[in-house]
Description:
This protein is of the alpha/beta class. The protein is 42% helix and 12% strand. The strands form 5 sheets. The protein has a 6-stranded parallel β-sheet, sandwiched between helices. Helix 5 (145-155) links the parallel strand 4 (138-140) and strand 5 (162-165). It is elongated, with a radius of gyration of 29 Å. The chain starts with 7 loop residues before the first helix and ends in a 14-residue tail after the last strand.
Amino acid sequence: MHALRPSAEVLNAAAGSSNERLPSVDLQLQPSAPSTSGVRQSPHNALDRLRRVFTKKIQPSSAENVVRGLGVAAETLLRCVFSRSQAQQIRVYSEVPLLQVQAQLVELGVPREALNAIKVFPIGKLATHGSETAPRVWYDPFANYHKAFQFRDRFARESYPITCTVHGLSDYRLLYDRLLRVLLAETNYTDSFLCSTDACRSALRKLFAQLEEILEARYGVRRRYNGRFDVLPLPIDCTFYSPGDRGLARKTLGIPKSAFVILYVGRLSFLKCDLLPLLTALASSTSQWKGMEWTLCLAGTTERRYIERIHAFAREVGIPPQRLRVFLNVSDEEKVALLRAADVFTSPSDSLQECFGLSVAEAMATGIPQVVADWSGYREVVLDGVTGFTVPTHWAECDEDLGSTASLLGWQFDNVLLSQTVAMDPGKWLSAIIRLATNESLRASFSRESRRRAVERFSMEAVARQHFDLWQELSDLPRPSLPDISQRRQIESISYGTAFDHFPTGMASLDSSVRCSGLSRPIAEAVVRYAPGYLIDTGAFSPALIRQILQIAQDEGPTPLRSLVAAGHGHGCDAFVLRHVMWAVKQGLLEWDEVAPVRTAGPNTC
């Protein structure tokens, strides 16, 4: 049963009820910082390998080096939230200890002084229901939407807002692997998907509607997402990406001082965008340049055969080699130098994965006018006629026969095939480029407005403020009630004790009794010290609780499991304590009193 939305009076009262600083923001940090150089996909089974064969046909080098924008965006969001925190505390749940978490954050560029406001808990603490670790507002920057809602559904005694940043939406697996799981969970008015643009928000709403319709029409199941969709842009570092000495940048990069430089920065791949139409337009524009020199610079990570194709096509259409410069696998510092060396930034985006355009915003922060496709979130990042020009695009609904191709050939197949049907007007693109090339005052105006817009809208400070304002708003809303935790059965939560109780010889009950086995204290202590470190790090295992159990058994002699479980309530729930007792039996620290457990296991039947 879904929580109803509160009345307008309640919402208005809540809006003015709290002047206190947001107590905390909670998030789960992945085992290692999401390094963009390390986001790889490797074949795990026969079907994966088959998909890779087809994928290499459309992006030949992808198998060796697939780098996603998600990694860049998640890194930047983490740095933004941690280094510009407006909460009293940021609580991190992680599989690794505090020092490793701090090292990851410093590597991301979080100032060391900001680490003082970060408290790290083992991920297992989320399951203990303690007030110390009850989230105030949950934030997921990694697009693991389903996990956030599953955590709350499974473990929370009181509701709390869940917010998730949305990245690319055109991977077919998103529907089943993530959004379906969100629909199966309980959602409410305090939850929000954080979309970088309104285009992203509209697409996500349509995907949820599609999934809801399929569930109801095919399975007779009516499920709805009851939360909200907020638009919050992705952040960029406007201190790092800033205007600089153009002459020095060109000298460093070996770019002619007098040339009009057109720059594209991004992944050099058909999966990102098709650059050939730009070369076609430039090759046929000789008379329009009126003797001006121009240079097209392409920079980014690449697929080898794609670049070979670019060079071969340029030669065939008559573009001189000195007019086309390619910079591969550039560092952030080299990217800034390229932006400062450029006169105009361009991106003919045609990808269904594109929701925002970080490289466009970075160019804007560097004060470079933009000429980009009027596509998806680009039209919201770039102000047409103010910071640059957006070039019309056209598409057709031509995907009727692609219903199952992605599941066989990989999501990239559908995306590349459909991107080849998105048409940006090459004539209008060229007109916009030449208009800027021949109008220095217009370029200067666009440059000033670009820098101003980037700082006001996309800077770390501006985006952090928008996030924390939203989290404060959601935190102040009345908390909807949750069903009793014992009634929240999860589709993905196995009742192990019921399903597998016929595996052992017998099942212990709370009336079973144990006693100390007689192991010497040094041996017993060694056994405890060598407990699995992973379980200790995640908070799933407590050496202190084991020692308490052993002390009780030593002091009181044969002890019913019921008494040991009751004595251990300060550490966790009944099951948590009982697992420790059974571990002690397993390791020979405790033994059954006189006879083994008598409760018979369930029948070995289906």
